[in-house]
Amino acid sequence: MTKQPGKLSAFLERKQIRPSWKVYFIDAMGAMALGLFATLLMSTILGTVADLCNGHAEFLREIASYAKSATGMAIGVAMAVALKAPPLVIYSCAVVGAMANAMGATIDGTTYSAGPAGIFFVVIIACELGKVVSKETKVDILVTPLIVLLAGYGASLLFCPAVAYVMYYLGNFISIATDFAPLLMGIVVSVVMGIVLTLPISSAAICAVVFSETVIAGSSSPEALYLAAGAAAVGCCCQMVGFAVISFRENRFGGLVAQGLGTSMLQMGNIVRKPIIWIPAIFASAVCGALSTTLFELKCAGVFAGMGTCGVVGPIGILKYSGSSATVWVGLILLCVVLPAILSFACNEVLRKTGLVKTGDMKIDV
User: Fold this and answer.
1) How many domains does the chain have?
2) Which of 297, 284, 276 is nearest to 339 (CA)?
3) Which 3-state string (H, E, C) describes 127-157?
């Protein structure tokens, strides 16, 4: 009785199956975000550039269509690599990702795919089962892909409709709440998504599902959901710009670029050691989120809403869905760059004056 757990642990370790929050919700979800970036996000950016070129760059639109069609496959492969799967499992997960991305549920006559959220759960199940059987038989080249595909199909049938329903009703809830109380929801969505962006989980992957154009189109108030996504984009920008500015003393221009155009996740270790350093960026997210849904009515959607200023993707998304009027440009510059910098700096200076924050608290390796 005492030897069996040891044997099981040894088997799982040999197969590199290590179930944990970090493996699934940090490593695998982070890889999912990279797969999204390389396909769906690049597809949208290239499509937007093609639109701006007024028919002179149709090849970009063609590339964009191929990139979008490969979304599920890229996520499947990216997650399988992050889960340290053997080659046959990785290649089979490309098919599983495509399956899960296509499956979903029909609600009120409209078909909603589970999207990246469905892929996330399905690929984890199929990949881990594939790792269990990998290289355990003399016909591994047949058995492993078969198990991965069968497991992926079964998990897709089980999880994808449920995920599609959850995303649909979550989107509806956010749209109704934003329509009813745009000021409050602007604050809530901006702060929550800003925090998620800085945490070691993927805000881009979450936004790609909750604020997908399919969910928005099927919501009770599409305009309100676009506004909520705009607040999410603003909140993410506030975190990145905020930390880039308030940590300038410690990290200089390298830190400014790494956090302002890379990710505020670099501060996660410092936040764990001293959570109070997070207050300035959160404060900026709350103020700017409120202004986003009320005064400037900035809009966004999909993966753009969860990218912040990383590669200037968040602002590009706001321009894509809000238009390029003078009001939008003013709102974009103020809420995504200027106010986050000023508010975060002012709040941080107050904390420094009281001795709650000191030089060195936000030092990162850049």
Assistant:
1) 2
2) 284
3) HHHHHHHCCCCCCHHHHHHHHHHHHHHHHHH
- β-partners of residue 111 are 106
Instruction: List, in sequence order, every residue forming a beta bridge with 112; answer none if it has no partner.
Output: 105
In this structure, what DSSP letter does residue 300 have?
Answer: -
| Domain-located, residue 363 | no
- Structural element, H or E, at residue 112: strand 110-113
Residue 104 bridge partners (DSSP)? 113
Q: Burial code of 181-195, b = ≥16 C-beta within 10 A, e = fewer?
A: ebeebbbbbbbbbbb
Instruction: Give the domain range for residue 158.
Output: 11-172
User: Helix, strand, coil proportions of the chain in percent (round to 5)?
Assistant: 80, 0, 20
User: What is the C-alpha to C-alpha distance for residues 239 and 335, in angstroms, rounded to an integer?
Assistant: 11
Question: Looking at the structure, do residues 23 and 163 belong to the same domain, yes or no?
Answer: yes
Of 122, 149, 172, the one marking the end of a domain is 172
Q: Tokens 């997960």 identify what position?
A: 93
Over the stretch 16-75, which tens digit does the pLDDT of each residue have?
A: 888 888 888 888 887 887 888 788 878 877 887 887 788 788 999 999 999 989 999 999
Asked if residue 139 and residue 194 are part of one domain, the reply reads no
CA distance 187 to 206: 18
Residues 6+ apart with CB under 8 A from 64: 42, 43, 44, 46, 47, 50
